[in-house]
Amino acid sequence: MLSDKSAVIPKKACYGLRKTASHLAVASVLASLGLGVSAYAQAPKAAQNIDTNSSALQSKASANTEVSANSDQAQLKQQLIALAAQKQLATHPSWLRLHYYQQTDHKQDKQGQSKSSAYKSKITNPDFFISKEGRSNPQAELEAFITATIEQGKDGDDSVACRFPARTYWLKQQLGLEQVDSDCPDFDTWLQKLDPKKLSVVFAEEYPDRPVSAFGHTLMLIDSAASLADPKAIDKAHALNDTVAGNPDDSFIMYAVNSAFGGYPNDITIEPYPQKLADYLQQDNRDVWTYELKLTGAEVEQIMRHVYETKDLELPYYFTLDNCASEILRYIDVVRPEGNLLDEFTFAVVPSDVIRLLQKEGLINQQNYFPADATLAQAKLNNPQLTDLPSSSIDANHQLVPTQLTPVDNNPLNAHSLQRIMVGAGAQDDTGYLSLAYRGGFNGPLDRPSGYPQNFHLEAGVVEIRAYGDDEKDKGNHNRLELQELTILRGRSFNPINTARKGDSLLSSWGVNLQAIQVKDGSQMNNDARNSDPDSSHLVGSFGYEKGISAAFGSPEAGSGQLPPHLCYALGNGLAQVGKGLSKGYRVGAGVNLGCRYQLNRNARLIGEVQVPYWYHGSSANDQLKSSYWQPVLSLGAQYDLDKNKAIRIKGSYQLQDQINGREDVQLAYVTYF
């Protein structure tokens, strides 16, 4: 943790530093006054009419002063480098994190003791380092930095001290380099304009209608003394935002791939906070939560120094690991070397998960809620008597407007944990099975909705494996293990037409899925091809897209902008499936999905849906066999929450198709989130 005081160093070292610093100070003063050897050649004639022996002595003294200064400077560098080595600063977490160093190899001696480590920085730009070996050698970089700092002194904006103020400040703390006090006009002006006094994390809720924001977004609020003195004066505050600098002309698929795999650089911007807040509240209609961070004044300033060093790097943006949320954790890790928040995440850094981690680590002071324009409009629909309620949380003068509205239940601190495991037992027709399912995230139609936007259904990384027992009808299905589902992504976004969130068109609700699932082909062609075995199922790749309408009903929470709790929908869909188990290896379909979700209370909900697809997979050589057919599916489900992260779930489905057996599937499962 950073301190406002410089680090204490040994008395002997202090004496040496003071002595050499005084020599340097004298040399610096002489140089600033132009009193080198050449200065005497330009002195007035009266001053030059002196004894030649005396003049020679003075010239010799001046030369000796320069030599002495250089000698003292070299001695100071050696002392500082030795002190840095003694304190092992090259491998100090703060030094490593300021340079984005990552440990690439860890060696041990024969006794298993730590011997050495190899490091490599994520930064490839050579201008980010002082040493030519700096990217892979923290020790060489430290020595080069100390040398450059001492040699350059007060060289202005292009000096090492001005280009890298965070590193300079940290070394001053560790080595007591009080004499290194460069004048940095560019940095000083930048910092004075921001006047950073407090940092808060801003969380804009999940927004599936914009793919890059489907999992939410975080940024940093920089409060100045003026914005702290008057909380309404957000025009005196700034937003520090890290997002992907994508190409808007790229297709959706290309944009998603480049965002996920580092094809685009990140874009760090600092802009007026009202402008950024308005983008979320007014343009996207996303509610916003802010969380004040427990950071000291010294830590806030050091984070901003580091931002100054790194804001123009344009690092590769990785949607899962190097994103808006990970950057906030990295800033905190830079000033808190005793911890490592980023290590808490292995596969993905998700904005809502970051908020929960900050709360868990005791890094949040207080939180504030800012309703979107649509939330305020919905509050008026819920209670027409709220005539004094403003239409927006921000007025025309870029000032905050008090709303006194009960927050919607979308605070990520109230959400269940991101990952989910379900352990269940069920039966498919007359065959029993055990099921184990894992989901990487996020929230499904039966999951506890608290902490997420209403009607937000988005799931990724779903895997279900089933172990089947003996078939009571003895059809050869003995004790088999089967991959039931592998879902990359499935989601639905509902914008009920009778609410303030109805969207821009009548057909504003939509859904998408990309997965591999077990299916049974109900076509006559397929049954004929497999010698009339209607019990076989096969894993196929499946893609579907839905578009339609939805409507909400029921009584919302009083005094809030909450939508009615229950929902019904009608979605038209298009489907495509590919796999060996299908006739001709593929089928395409179109149909309609009709369903309702009913919220019994805060802990229980029901869902029912009927899917009516009409499938086609090409003509058959046998004119007696149809190439297209209906295969409706009825599904029901219910979940009761035991607590925020535990639940009991029951679900079942029935396929209304007489060409197949095993049409019934019922399962009871225990659900845990972690």
TrEMBL record:
<dbReference type="InterPro" id="IPR025178">
    <property type="entry name" value="Lnb_N"/>
</dbReference>
<feature type="domain" description="Lnb N-terminal periplasmic">
    <location>
        <begin position="187"/>
        <end position="360"/>
    </location>
</feature>
<keyword id="KW-0732">Signal</keyword>
<protein>
    <submittedName>
        <fullName>Uncharacterized protein</fullName>
    </submittedName>
</protein>
<feature type="signal peptide">
    <location>
        <begin position="1"/>
        <end position="41"/>
    </location>
</feature>
<dbReference type="InterPro" id="IPR057162">
    <property type="entry name" value="DUF7840"/>
</dbReference>
<dbReference type="Pfam" id="PF13387">
    <property type="entry name" value="Lnb_N"/>
</dbReference>
<feature type="domain" description="DUF7843">
    <location>
        <begin position="87"/>
        <end position="174"/>
    </location>
</feature>
<feature type="domain" description="DUF7840">
    <location>
        <begin position="410"/>
        <end position="673"/>
    </location>
</feature>
<dbReference type="Pfam" id="PF25225">
    <property type="entry name" value="DUF7843"/>
</dbReference>
<dbReference type="InterPro" id="IPR057165">
    <property type="entry name" value="DUF7843"/>
</dbReference>
<dbReference type="Pfam" id="PF25222">
    <property type="entry name" value="DUF7840"/>
</dbReference>
